[in-house]
Amino acid sequence: MTVQVVKQSIRQRIIADREQLTPAERARLSHVISVRIANLSAYRTANTVLAYMSFGAEVSTEKWVQQALRDGKRVLMPKVNRATKELDVYRVTNLQHDLAPGQWNILEPLVERCDKINSLQDVDFILLPGIAFGRDGARLGYGGGFYDKLLARIKDVNQSYRPALVAGAFAIQLVEGLPQETTDHKVEWVVTEIETIKCVADLHLGR
After folding, report:
1. pLDDT higher at 202 or 1
2. Degrees (nearest 5) of the Cα angle 145, 7, 188?
3. What residues pair up with 166 in beta bridges, in sequence order?
């Protein structure tokens, strides 16, 4: 089987497993994961964080983002640019007023309310979505490559720029031997409701 076929098989399996969790269980586990992420030293010392709004059966990020705003962090969020098929980044200060459903019905920044951020060199902490993760930091997204392209742009601008790359996931999303391609970026931390996994540092943004 090709890498793409294997990846798609894993996506289908993990999405099905994730959707087996009840809404109450997802909310409970998401709360535990959010607290664990907020306790990371990389988060506590960060001034600017790049976050995202979860959808479907993902780990809920809303309370974590609200916490980041309360903590006085500068919170950035991505918006899909349909023309470039990449992510544009905007500053968000109020989740109720600054966001609206965008592509795939995911909450995204409203361009008329939020300032577009052209330089990401001040970002200290990036929370990355994904379907499955490995203990080595391997990440399997939804297949669009949006975040891998965003991370590649960050690396191209400044080779020494190294924000913390963190993923919040349910323990059922951990997969052994997750296949990776040359364009895939690994994360530095995977945080589940059970453990906080420090992945291999030299795989972080090509370090």
Report:
1. 1
2. 60
3. 127, 189
- The mean pLDDT of 188-201, rounded to a whole number, is 91
Q: Characterize 59-71 residue by residue with b for buried, 16 or more Cβ atoms within 10 angstroms of its Cβ, and e for exposed.
A: bbbeebbeebbee
Residue 64 has pLDDT above 60, yes or no: yes
For the beta sheet containing 164-168, the strands, ordered from the edge strand earlier in sequence to the opposite edge, are 86-92, 74-81, 48-50, 125-128, 164-168, 189-191, 196-198
d(C-alpha 180, C-alpha 176), whole Å: 12
User: What residue type is 124 in one-letter code?
Assistant: D
Closest-CA residue to 59 (of 26, 99, 12)? 26
CATH no., domain 3-203: 3.40.50.10420
User: In the predicted model, is pLDDT for residue 30 greater than 80?
Assistant: yes
Question: The whole model's pTM is what?
Answer: 0.92
